[in-house]
Amino acid sequence: MLPEKPYALSCDKNSEPILQVLKEYLPGCQALLEVGAGTGQHAIYMAPHFMHLKWTLADLTDRHEGISLWLKDFPRANVTGPVEYGMGNGLPDGPFDGVFTSNTLHIVSWDLCLKFFDDLKALSPKALVFIYGAFNYNGDFTTESNKKFNDWILESFPGGGLRDFEKVQSELKDRQISLVQDHEMPANNRLLVFQKN
Question: What is the mean pLDDT of residues 116-135?
């Protein structure tokens, strides 16, 4: 029996809103690394809108089969990968002038988040970093639904949890990566845009 493609409903729901924001920033990028690509659905949906851009999918090895199944059914001329990447192991071979990650920071430990931020120090000046997901502000949940979401995360991903926007911003600033814009997104999510100094 042939394996079935993994499917992420969230990708179907958030790809179009994310795309509309990325259209503001990606025209100047040439090579984007997607960290924690998951199923690969984001790239399949969005990459055709940026044919000037090489979009590289990166994730842990156990996700590669699912990504490859999606790419087999929906090949994209400017999408490559998947390549191996674990936070803290250094970014895959580039160079990349953009990094995109969606719904990753809250499912890994804070220690891994910090290692990921350390990896981003290798980016060249002016490189853009896009981080999508739900965040706390001023140390608290923005909505009751985000609090319930956080409870589910804590049960499902030990060490995970919604991250504080201010802590993320501060840690990246310490690594010479500054906030450009905090975009409000549907379903109480945000798309944070940073740039390497």
Answer: 97
- Say if residues 79 and 100 touch (Cβ distance below 8 Å): no
pTM for this one? 0.96
List the CATH number of the domain containing 107: 3.40.50.150
By the 8 A CB rule, do 98 and 127 touch? yes
Instruction: Estimate the crossing angle of helix 110-120 against helix 165-174, to 10 degrees.
Output: 40
φ, ψ (nearest 5 deg) of residue 105: -60, -30
DSSP state of 140: B
Cα separation, 79 vs 85, in Å, equals 16
The two three-digit tokens of residue 108, written as one number: 């890994």
List pLDDT tens digits, range 85-123: 999 999 999 899 999 999 999 999 999 999 999 999 999
Tell me whether residue 6 is in a domain.
Answer: no
Residue 4's pLDDT band (cuts 50, 70, 90): confident
Q: Are 90 and 66 within 8 A, CB to CB?
A: no
